[in-house]
Amino acid sequence: xxxxxxxxxxxxxxxxxxxxxxxEVFHCEVTDEIFKDYEEYCERIILVNSMVWSCEMxxxxxxxxxxxxxxxxxxxxxxxxxxxxxxxxxLYLAAKTKRCSFAEMAEDVFNYVRERYFVGESVEAxxxxxxxxESHVLSVTAPKQQPGSKVTLPxxxxxxxxxxxxxxxxxxxxxxxxxxxxxRKGVFSRDKCRLFLKQFVEMENTVIVIKKTALExxxxxxxxxxxxxxGSPPDFPSSKRLMKTSISPAxxxxxxxxxxxxxxxxxxxxEKKGQQSMDKFVKKSDKADAPKPKPDPAGKKSGQDLADKxxxxxxxxxxxxxxxxxxxxxxxxxxxxxxxxxQKVKDDLLLEDHKIIPKGTPVVIEGIxxxxxxxxxxxxxxxxxxxxxxxxxxxxxxxLDIETFRKALTAKEYASCFSDLIQMMLQTIFSLQExxxxxxxEGGSIDVSNGLGEYTH
Length: 457
Prior knowledge:
Keywords: Nucleus. Helix content is 43%, strand content 12%.
């Protein structure tokens, strides 16, 4: 059930319990609730669409109600595939942790379990070649250690006695090294470990512990570490908060079990009190009557010289800082002036970064002299720009390109492209002349705007 601001759950509406057949109601599809009051319905719609919900299983926050429901459904689907063989080992290891944070507990358990395989677990083993087949862990063996040693061996030091299935040699029992055993991909991950532990933990005296119902359900109290693995159980580190609380009592407080007792302070008697005050008075009078030492003129002079040197040194440091500040200010002013001058728009001849123009590559067209290249390209550009007016497509289906124009000027053939080019030009000239004549006939007169006069037809 999604949590509202990580605390309270949604209180369902009870309006559906007191309804008649002819009552008008409002249905909230997200929560499947019915409301008789429209304002309550609007408040519920705004609430479920606000990003104030969190997923109870994953702990994700800043979700809407629908997103939190989807997150819980996805978490439950993920836990359905969680292997049964790992549940007791994980809960047993989690019960051995001493953490104040659930994230730290889950990380401790995951780091220990991810590269270790437990008795009864289904794994994949590679016994021959590179063929990985489903297997079953029968027992775990480790190198011999000194008696009473609590050193945690690395995961690579263990070997596993496995029984392989789904092969020609069904039921074969072999001892496999650590690197020849693995879990199926996606069976155990950090997220799945956190999801599984999340539903079985609670806070007890600032420590994250396994719920008593889970301990009783899986009989964790009767499980011994040798039944699920080998060697001694791991000694997980404690949280810093727990380590601080376990420090010895503060200074000034008697240690528990100590035989010494604090003695009550004795009050001074009136006679001793008067004697102490008289002693203080006598000491003060003695100090007052003592002759004062005469000042040494040499020492006074040396102290004055030292003070003068220190004063001069301070003045020099102050002057040096002012000079550096002035130099820096002047440098910034020059830089700003240079940038302002550099950003001005200048004539090309006044620019300072002139470079020699690189020599161009000469354009060579077969049959066309180099001194006529400019005219050749000018005509070609003219035809390209006024292609609609010249109706180039009627004479040259693919347009007048460089190669066609070159052949028209150099080829000595009868009825060549040159004749088509001349015909295109002449036809355009005659057509334009006819258009001008029609305009002249329609207007009947020509207005001369340069002041020479007016001609009327």
